[in-house]
Amino acid sequence: MASTFAPFLLKGKTAIVTGAGSGINLAFSSLLLSRGCNVVFADLGLRPEAKAITDKYSGFSSGPRAIFQKTDVTDWTQLSKMFEVAEKEFGGTDLVCPGAGIFEPNWSNFWHPPGSSESKDSIEGGRYASLDINVTHPIRVSQLAISAFLSHQASGRASRENPKRIVMISSVAGEGASLLVPIYCASKHAIIGFTRSLAALDEKFGIRVNACCPGIIKTPLWTDNPDKMKYVDQKKDVWATPEEVAEAMLKLVEDEDMVGGTILEVGHEQTRIVPMLNNPGPKGAAISVSGTPGLIDGVFESLSEEGWGKPQ
Length: 312
Known about the structure:
By secondary structure, this protein is an alpha/beta fold. 37% of the residues lie in helices and 14% in strands.
């Protein structure tokens, strides 16, 4: 059935990528630009390497262009603004990647509840920042993307003849479980379930929603956070690169066999389609880390202390 769809050719199209200021999303944005696709870089800021890319592609009168749109992904007004910018500058949107995410930082962490000294989640707030960023933001962006795709934007209404794409970023954590990062695992399981639930949009409207599940990827999400680097045994564990994930995401966008609802696991020099049922689990290089047993003991020790979870 996939052969009845028009191919999705990136040249001349426009993408919105959240979290494009660094890491996987920067690598994906750079790859899209190299294929002739305009990119709206939506992030709170740009690392120097991202600034160099946007500067390189910002002044072109012809060919692909990059635009930085400062965006707090927890603010729905700012999420809407991304699409307004894409419409104004490029005539609409063809590809959306709500890729911004966080790895259960101490300031929004299950083991540092609201009201504890390290948490920034308000005890009266009724929400966790980790879930706002990792789950609520991609869900809301998907609603906005589908609305844009089905409108009569200059780039054309979505159809089998004019396909559109949404690419999510889950994680191998979405296939398993970890006592260390339970909110993160829950959020990434949510992205897999959400992606599979939108699979039928592909056949009906030409809107393909897929997700990748990266393993251990060498990005600032890890390397800039000493508390996360404790999980890694530098002598034993293998990293994959952001560029490897970006290539897998491109495959989800372009390959006609990657039908709606496909989940693609990404390790070092390997990819694997994740089945909905009877999944044997992640396997291969750059899929897991070795430094967790002692850290789990630390969680148990904190729970043994008097007053855990009570506001300080």
